[in-house]
Design goal:
Layout lengths: L1 H15 L3 H11 L3 H6 L1 H11 L18
Helix pairs in contact: 1-4
Length: about 70
């Protein structure tokens, strides 16, 4: 259950940081649906750094995530 709660929290933070656009990119690559997006949100956050989507995050939202540029 703790993993489910952790993935749910990370999915919320990812959506809050507007990283869902990265999820749409992953949807094209791996054909994930919304429920799968929540499960792999832990992988989406690091990928957002490389894709540059982290630029859309509001100030203070990406304090724990290093910038890739």
């Amino acid at each position: 259950m703790s993993f489910f709660k952790l993935s749910s929290m990370s999915a919320y933070s990812a959506t809050h940081c507007k990283v869902f656009s990265v999820g749409l990119k992953l949807t094209r690559i791996g054909s994930y649906n919304l429920s799968s997006y929540r499960l792999i949100s832990l992988d989406i956050v690091p990928m957002a750094v490389w894709s540059g989507a982290i630029e859309e995050c509001p100030p203070g939202c990406n304090t724990s995530i290093p910038r890739s540029k």
